[in-house]
């Protein structure tokens, strides 16, 4: 057991932030208990998955809880980064208490390393557990409005990408905390930058894998994608293969099923990502985020080495 006992700066870090660290498993247990109770109240799935049964109050309560969970987990990486940047790093630099750690035969790199390792371990394990709890509730309502596998919030909360973004927050916090050295400002900067990365990669993630395309003759039944697919674009095709917005015909004829002869419309198309793209996109995006986090973490240790705090 002595080998498993935390020592030196690791023990100090855990001791300093024990209340926050204990809050993570408490949140996981509370979330799990809530999801299990709400799923039991909601009962078995209904055949019509795209509509909410008005008489099933348990189902409605589960949806409301999962909506809040989607939003909360979407902002979790920002909170992780802000905590590492502020209370764990910048506050000690701002107040000067970091000097006490250096008097205990601890180097600046060991001081920062302890904070990063503790924060990364707790964040990764906590994010993994929360994502598992989220999926437990999500499988009951998946496919309903706002809970499609590609929807913002659901996508981030239900897979390993949540762990990647939390580790990115740790790396950003460690770097920003040293550079800014002001608690509230470091927290704000880290939260803002983490949010910008989330938005940026969120806008690009559906360009990682090539879309699939369904076509159909025009006029006729639209080229619908598979039921579980995420549609990215649709429109009309001319005889030469040129793509035309679906509204182009309606603007001239005021009828979606009729196009002017001079437009030479012969078909229609739909682009989509099938449900099978979920896991490859998750894994590729997670890898990109982890590479970025590794680069930021390298920069953080270069700063502590160059400045020696």
Put the structure in a nutshell.
With 309 residues, the chain is an alpha+beta fold.
Description:
- With 309 residues, the chain is an alpha+beta fold.
- The protein has two domains: 231 residues; 64 residues, no CATH class.
- It has ten helices and four strands.
- Strands 1-4-2-3 form a four-stranded antiparallel sheet, with no helix packed on it.
- Strand 2 and strand 3 form a beta hairpin.
- Helix 3 crosses helix 8, helix 5 runs antiparallel to helix 7 and helix 7 packs antiparallel against helix 8.
- The chain is elongated.
- The mean pLDDT is 87.
Which helices and strands appear, and what pairs or packs with what?
Blueprint: H1 8-16, H2 18-42, H3 57-95, H4 98-102, H5 108-141, H6 154-157, H7 161-180, H8 183-204, E1 212-217, E2 230-238, E3 243-244, H9 247-253, E4 265-273, H10 278-307
Antiparallel strand pairs: 1-4, 2-3, 2-4
Mean pLDDT: 87
How many domain units? 2
| Low confidence ranges | none
Straight-line N-to-C gap: 34 Å
Question: Which structural class is indicated by helix and strand composition?
Answer: alpha+beta
Instruction: List how many beta strands DSSP finds.
Output: 4
Mass-distribution shape: elongated
Please tell me how large the radius of gyration is.
Answer: 25 Å
Strand order of the largest sheet: 1-4-2-3
Instruction: Encode the helix/strand succession as letters.
Output: HHHHHHHHEEEHEH
Number of helical regions: 10
Helix fraction bin: 55-70%
Write down the oligomeric state: single chain
Q: Major β-sheet, in short?
A: 4 strands, antiparallel
Report the β-strand fraction as a percent range.
Answer: 5-15%
């Amino acid at each position: 057991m002595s080998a498993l006992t935390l020592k030196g700066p690791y023990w100090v870090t855990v001791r300093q932030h024990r209340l926050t660290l204990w809050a993570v498993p408490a949140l996981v247990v509370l979330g799990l208990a809530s999801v299990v109770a709400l799923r039991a109240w909601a009962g078995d799935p209904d055949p019509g998955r795209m509509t909410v049964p008005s008489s099933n109050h348990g189902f409605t309560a589960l949806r409301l809880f999962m909506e809040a969970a989607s939003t909360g987990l979407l902002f979790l990486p920002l909170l992780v980064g802000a905590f590492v940047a502020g209370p764990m790093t910048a506050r000690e630099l701002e107040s000067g208490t970091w000097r006490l750690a250096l008097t205990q035969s601890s180097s600046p790199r060991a001081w920062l390393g302890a904070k990063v390792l503790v924060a990364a371990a707790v964040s990764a394990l906590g994010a993994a557990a929360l994502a598992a709890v989220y999926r437990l509730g999500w499988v009951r309502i998946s496919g309903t409005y706002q809970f499609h596998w590609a929807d913002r919030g659901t996508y981030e909360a239900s897979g390993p990408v949540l762990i990647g973004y939390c580790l990115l927050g740790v790396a950003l916090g460690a770097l920003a905390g040293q550079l800014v050295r002001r608690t509230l400002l470091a927290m704000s900067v880290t939260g803002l930058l983490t949010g910008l990365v989330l938005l940026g990669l969120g806008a690009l993630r559906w360009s990682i894998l090539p879309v699939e395309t369904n076509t159909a003759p025009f006029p006729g039944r639209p080229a619908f994608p598979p039921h579980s697919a995420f549609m990215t674009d649709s429109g009309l095709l001319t005889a030469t293969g040129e793509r035309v917005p679906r509204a182009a015909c309606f603007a001239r004829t005021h009828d979606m099923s009729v196009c002017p002869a001079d437009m030479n419309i012969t078909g229609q198309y739909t682009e989509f990502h099938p449900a099978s793209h979920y896991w490859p996109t998750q894994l590729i995006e997670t890898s990109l985020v982890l590479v970025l986090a590794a680069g930021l973490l390298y920069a953080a240790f270069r700063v502590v080495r160059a400045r020696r705090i």
